Amino acid sequence: MNGRSAKIIGDGGGIFTAGHDIQTPFHVSVQTPDQCVELTCHGILRNLPGKRLVCAGTYGDQPVVIKFFLDSRRAKKHSIREERGILALKASNILSPNLLFKGILPFTRTRVLVFQRIHSAVDFADAWDQAATDIRRAGLLGKIISAMANLHQSGLAHNDVHWGNFMVSGTEIYAIDGAAMDLRHRGRPLSEARSIKNLSAFFAQMGPQFDHLLPDAVKIYLKNWSWPESSGLSHRLNRQLRMERRKREKKYLKKIYRESSAYVCQKTWKRFRVCDRSRHTENMQHFLDNPDAFIPADRLLKDGNSSTVARVEVDHRSLVVKRYNMKSFWHALRRCPRPSRAWHSWGSAHRLNLHGISTPRPVAFIENRWGPFRSKAYFITEYAPGVDAYHWFHSGKGDAATERKILEKFGRLMQRFQDGLITHGDLKATNFIFSDGELMVIDLDAMRSHRWAGPIFRRKFRKDCRRLMQNWKDLPEIYKMFRDQIDIIRD
């Protein structure tokens, strides 16, 4: 039934007004000119309440992906744009799922498109995470960069080159989300500037720790274009990549403070809370309502005047709660107009993840408020079992080879801080945790992101390096190895 229209009967039991709380499976009946069939949605792939719902399901006996366009004012426009984009990909011999069916929910303006579900496909982000070696990552990059070169040669640009919009099935790369296709230049190759901008937006989603893979990927792109390599093009690409990363970071960090498909946001006159939606359960809600009741006196990790840190259990998972206290009336008065340290730590943790710097996964944060004024606040992360760097190095249990590996990890971490224009503000050894083979950074209260690599950043970064070196003054050999790593970064 390639592209044949029909009507969808029923609204699936009100699932389109259920917001984020959609229960699966659900069914909708489909009336075609020939027969009445049923669409069954087994799982939610993407849910933008009131805008778009994407489900994995079945159409008859065939596995499909079903897109519901829910915005009554723009549903027709968006579904037509999606269809045109997919057809343009097909016409340009670029792999994309087949459109099997399109329809309208009766008595509503909800449009529906049903696509072939690609066999054994995962999105590019998942495929990248599953790639354990640089050889596999380079292979994935080569395939997708070849596909993007074909897109650009056909005059097409994907305006949302999110890695979730590319599917990997075996050795094939499929482009999805036809609504995001820019068709204005279709039929003639994109300009160099437009191509570089689109390519940089894709590369910007790759952590800086993988930038060493970019030169070979760019060579593949240029080979597909038959463009000569030039230092000028590489320079423009690197400059555009830095701009795209900053833009992506800014856009992402806005989303983590509001209601979205990834986060639950609850705001009242007396409290502001944000929680990772995947961790938001009934028990988590009870915890967020009264975190102090969950903090046991015998499981305190720190009991200071300005902050209290404790390990708690919620849903049989260990979490770390850092409560930011008000030391006095005057301290509260100075702090209340500003975003809390919990707000700041929540943003800093997400920023570190974007830059490929490991930190315990942020789960939630809470601010007690009186209208616009803040008071006591809480920052909640997953518990990362392990030993801090101070006790590890001072234990004397590590052999020389292990020490070198760990020092190299410190070197890479400091390089990422420098590349990301980030300063930590308190690099004492106890703020580094070795957990499951990873070097994690904690205590993000004083972390700062800098816009320019100017004097202020350089001064604060040097201060971070000096503070890191102070940890090892009583360990001359370790001190020397750390100094060598820092000297490499400065060079």
What does this structure look like?
37% of the residues lie in helices and 27% in strands. The termini are far apart. Residues 1-5 and 8-13 have low confidence and may be disordered. The chain is built from 13 helices and 24 strands. It is α+β, with helices and mostly antiparallel strands.
CATH topology of the largest domain: Transferase(Phosphotransferase), domain 1
Total DSSP helices: 13
Mean pLDDT: 85
**Coarse structural class:** alpha+beta
Low-confidence stretches: 1-5, 8-13
Distance between the termini: 63 Å
* Whole-angstrom Rg: 26 Å
CATH architecture descriptor name of the largest domain: Orthogonal Bundle
Task: Characterize the largest beta sheet: strand count, sense, and whether it forms a barrel.
Answer: 7 strands, mixed, barrel
Task: Kindly report the oligomeric state of this protein.
Answer: single chain
The strands making up the biggest β-sheet line up spatially as 1-2-3-4-5-7-6
What's the CATH class label of the largest domain?
Answer: Mainly Alpha
What would the principal axes of the Cα set say about the shape?
A: globular
Strand content: 25-35%
Beta-strand segment tally: 24
Number of domains: 4
| Helix percentage range | 25-40%
